[in-house]
């Protein structure tokens, strides 16, 4: 009886599919990552390389992928309150003055919208 495939071949196929998925995600998130780097450059007056390193380091330290962190950081820079709370906590490390509740006065209840 002839063997059609091997376990190694199946594992190689799975590894290739995972690599393709990762590369696709990287291409799709590239624009917003660039925007997030730009926000950090403008906010902290740092080089693009330093901003990228800060974004990457925060991603690693908080276990939030850059592709998730970047759009939330851009939303927060625009004044929006992101729905992804975990990524917002990570982004608040980079934009502490834009974190939800950053404008609140300690000991005072937040203002209610009219």
Describe this structure in words.
The protein is mostly helical and 114 residues long. The chain has a domain of 67 residues. 64% of the residues lie in helices and 0% in strands. It is built from four helices and no strands. The radius of gyration is 20 Å and the shape is elongated. It starts with 6 loop residues before the first helix and ends in a 22-residue tail after the last helix. The C terminus is likely disordered.
Characteristics:
single chain, 114 residues, mainly alpha, 64% helix, elongated
Summing up helix and strand content along with how strands pair, one would put the structural category as: mainly alpha
Shape: elongated
Number of beta strands = 0
Regarding quaternary structure, what we see is single chain
- How many helices? The count is 4
Share in helix: 55-70%
Please describe the topology of this protein:
Layout lengths: L6 H38 L3 H15 L3 H12 L7 H8 L22
Helix pairs in contact: 1-2, 1-3, 3-4
Write a compact overview of the structure shown.
With 114 residues, this protein is mainly α. It has helices at 7-44, 48-62, 66-77, 85-92. The chain has a domain at 31-97.
């Amino acid at each position: 009886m002839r063997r059609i495939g091997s376990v190694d071949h199946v594992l190689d196929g799975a590894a290739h599919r995972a690599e393709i998925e990762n590369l696709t995600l990287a291409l799709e998130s590239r624009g917003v990552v660039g925007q997030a780097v730009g926000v950090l450059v403008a906010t902290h007056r740092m080089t693009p390389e330093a901003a990228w390193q800060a974004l990457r380091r925060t991603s690693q330290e908080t276990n939030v992928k850059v592709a998730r962190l970047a759009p939330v950081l851009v939303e927060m820079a625009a004044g929006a309150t992101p729905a992804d709370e975990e990524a917002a906590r990570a982004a608040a490390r980079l934009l502490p003055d834009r974190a939800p509740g950053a404008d609140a006065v300690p000991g005072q209840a937040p203002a209610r919208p009219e």
